[in-house]
Amino acid sequence: MAIVVSRNVGVLGMQLLRAIETDEATPVGISVRTMVLTAGASDQAIQRIAGLGCRIEREDEIFSALDKLFTDPSGYGLFIMDADAFGGLASGHRAFRLLGEVAAKVPMIMFSAECRDQVFPQGRESPTILRAPLSAVSLRVGFEHALRARMALYV
Question: What per-residue confidence (pLDDT) applies to 104?
């Protein structure tokens, strides 16, 4: 069974159709090298991220993770942070600010139980923010949103 999403794309009334298979979800992160910053309590989150098909490098220390991103920004496709493990959303935003210019190259997703409204920014001036605990659906949507520039090449 497929659900078809339709969107008008012009004054001529043309429509863009994209079938979404509900029976099978394909991995969207195949070969995306992903830095996951967590203090060990998020094993379910790690499994869900791995289920999207990415190559995970896990770090338990914030400055070590940031150092690796600074050293090789073009080597990583995504940075995911468990903000609750490091003090909450304020700490996550501080880490994002520390990334500076690297944030323009490496999109960031952070998740926290403090999050009331999930955030899907238009640009890379702020991170994608998801509610914790991560659901498979919110993670997939956040992942596709954060990597939308990369995924546009494959549509």
Answer: 86
Q: Which residues 6+ apart lie within 8 Å of 7 measured at CB? A: 15, 16
Give 100-148 pLDDT, tens digit per residue: 989 888 999 999 999 999 999 988 889 999 999 888 899 999 999 998 8
Distance, C-alpha 19 to centroid of its chain = 22
- pLDDT tens-digit readout, 32-47: 899 999 986 567 888 8
Region class of 27: left (phi > 0), else alpha (psi between -120 and 50), else beta: beta
Do residues 104 and 124 touch, judged by C-beta distance below 8 A?
A: yes
Amino acid at 138: S
Element (H, E) at 144: helix 136-146
Query: What are phi and psi for residue 70, nearest 5 degrees?
Result: -65, -40
Dump the DSSP string for 92-120.
HHHHHHHHTTHHHHS-EEEEETT-SS-B-
Instruction: Give, as one character, the DSSP assignment of residue 11.
Output: T
**How is 28-79 classified by DSSP, letter by letter?**
S-TT-EEEEE--S--HHHHHHHHHTT-EEEEESSHHHHHHHHHH-GGG-SEE
How far is C-alpha 60 from the geometric centre of its chain's CA atoms? 18
